[in-house]
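Archive transcription. Copying these from loose printouts into the bound notebook so they stop getting lost. Printout 1 of 2:
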Amino acid sequence: MRAFAQFMHKELGLAGDGEDLADICAGTDRYAMYRAGPVLSISHSMGIPSISIMLHELIKLLHHAKCRDVTIIRIGTSGGLGIEPGTVVITDTAVDSSFKPRFEQVVLEDVVVRSTELDKDLAKELLACSKEIPEFLTLIGHTMCTYDFYEGQGRLDGALCSFSSEKKLEYLKRAYNAGVRNIEMESTAFAALCGLCGLKAAVVCVALLDRLEGDQIRAPHEVLWEYQQRPQRLIAAFIRKQLGLRPPAGNTLFFTN
């Protein structure tokens, strides 16, 4: 996140080299937070519990800071579904493991169901910004959010596996036919909480592989490194557009989080 903040510092043409950016949350081990102009760059670990904690505390911070017109965008990596590795997916709707647009949470013994629709206009704006970066494909699709990295995502390479490869492929193909184009572990909680709080939000993830073709990532490190820069490049283009800025001259270096 520090590297992404330094990248945005350069993209926004801020004074200095960004080397002095400090972790605002250095006193806690929950996450790291850096600021580059009007951009906050915040880390979260894998899974719904981690991103939920961060979002609750971030939203309280934004409230007390009297921030207005806030846009929150989650960027990261994911497993693709029926798409080429390196494709960037902008989520229109986050769905659960049954391909439903919902986030279920137990609150005081009650199962509470919340909507996971994301801002459609924001997704379209991000897709329009992708036209500035023709080197890779960007598309809009559903993102499936799971509670588990292995069996919950239909992987055959975990410590346990209770299904066959045929059953796995049948499930993933049904997900594809339902509009799912990538799989990760945070989007339903993210969409639900941002929606409840009235925040404009988006999820932008790059696919590291096509899960219909296997479970293991085969691409070399340098290729994966470049893939991970793609969501950051797209978000930088979007932020520049929102602020009425042009891209800095000669900028070819991108950082990973």
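Printout 2 of 2:
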Amino acid sequence: MRPTSLAASLFLASLLSSTGVKADLTVSPSRSQFFEYESVILICEDGWTVRRNTTKGTRTRCEEGWGKLNGSTCNMNYLFEHDTGLYWCESMSGSSSSSSSIQLSVSGGSVILQSPVLPVMEGDDVTLSCRAKNPTHNLPAAFYKDGSFIGDETTGNKILNSVKKSDEGLYKCNVKGHGESPSSRISVKEKPSTTSSPSTPPPSSSSSPSSQFLLSGLLPLAGVVLVLLVLLVKCHINRKSKDNQEDGEESLTYTDVQIFQRKQQKDKPNGGSDPSAVVSTVTTDEVSYGQIIIRETRKRDYKPEPKVVYSTLR
């Protein structure tokens, strides 16, 4: 393949892989570079077939002059340099649905770079292996990214630790005395974010400082409520007394207010002596209650009973 065609194919592969379309083409062995006369298996999902763009043709399907089709699997038993190009899966139903593309390179030289054929996840470690055709064991190699030297490795393996988006680019290697590999692009996809809900602390049996502060603020409020209650009752009694005086009845009314405070007590207010007692209760950790005794005397034959109103805040 001519350099301009290879560059265009690599650019197109990068563009398609960045669209986020699911890459459902499987390559075995899983690498992007091969020596001539090696074999490769391309596997699509059921109902899909392999297509490619190379210097020999555009959007040609497996068995249209290349490969052997077996269901959704395409076997290429002997690779040649003109097999270098873009490969993808396409629906056999005739729809325009297709997978993302994969760039495969076939080298007629003696050095290839073994690198991931699919985009790698951000944060993963990636190993690049520089492989010579003969001898087959690893040799010292120099590695390059986008044409810039990034280091020598005596074992022929270059490890990229915790890759990030800035590690994307074209990589190649060179083995002294054997030659240079074709370039292969490494794409990095963002790691999906995981949001964890904050754990709820277990309830505590003892009162927290915030609850104690809340209670300390409620106690003065209880006193205010009791005072307001006294004023409302007194207003009601004055109106009733005025009505009684208009009817010719004389009455004497007075109010006795008592406020008590107690912590963690369950005793009920002593209202047994007065059957007309009314009790209002709100539960908290501390107990504050007020006793409002309203006494009213009239010039009648019956003995008036005191009216007691309890307002309790727990």
